[in-house]
């Protein structure tokens, strides 16, 4: 129609939000965080699930869901202008509001209470809200099967059908990793920046970690726990990590860049 005005669709995405000095991820892209950060995100999920008295199966399910939603990048955000999905569990702003107003502390989710304030890119805060949403969707599904829960979590069959096999496989392996106490270990050391060459008359700047080894708890009480410090740094930590992890888990494949094993089909003789 002549003279009609075209209105731009509101952009709900946080993908364009700039990273800050506190950002742990390297961008807003799925999985774009170093191995140290990813391990600490996993560890935060395990610790908060433990504080909430969740079962080992629930904890394994949460790890599998976080891997699908963010690739353990706490600063990930969808590129879709129609969604505000952000952080470890890709929580939308409306979902966070619902978790605060409808779910937190209720019998529906076993009395679990979310962090006081939603901070989408704060690992501990996002994980807290992710647990509340998980417990709600588990109630909807009426099952503790990760695939059934994800169907309630992501109601688009075109999306969730592509991920059900992956979720089930990884949840099964994460359950084994939990039995083996993988996250009791220090994990990979934080990457270190190379020494900056000194200019004439100046002292060379010492190498610094590119990320903080731990996130300090905020005084406002909007996080449930701080990410713990690594027990050791450098080669000792890497050695302990390799001994603890083994070579065949979603965690070890992610950290060590080992490809998924290829299943060989056995052909029975005719």
Give the biggest sheet. Answer: none
Q: Could you state the order of secondary-structure elements as H and E? A: HHHHHHHHH
Rg, please? 21 Å
Q: Count up the domains.
A: 1
Give the strand content. Answer: under 5%
Q: Ends: how far apart?
A: 70 Å
What's the total number of strands? 0
Principal-axes geometry comes out as globular
- Percentage of helical residues? 40-55%
Low-confidence stretches are 208-264
Structure description:
The protein is mainly α. It has one domain. It is 40% helix and 0% strand. Helix 1 packs across helix 4 and helix 1 runs antiparallel to helix 9. The longest helix is centred in the middle third of the chain and has 19 residues. The chain is globular and about 70 Å long. The N and C termini lie far apart (70 Å).
Key traits:
270 residues, 40% helix, mainly alpha
Give a topology summary.
Blueprint: H1 35-51, H2 56-70, H3 93-103, H4 123-141, H5 146-153, H6 157-160, H7 164-179, H8 235-245, H9 250-256
Helix pairs in contact: 1-2, 1-4, 1-9, 2-7, 3-4, 4-5
Brief account:
This protein is mostly helical. It is built from 9 helices and no strands.
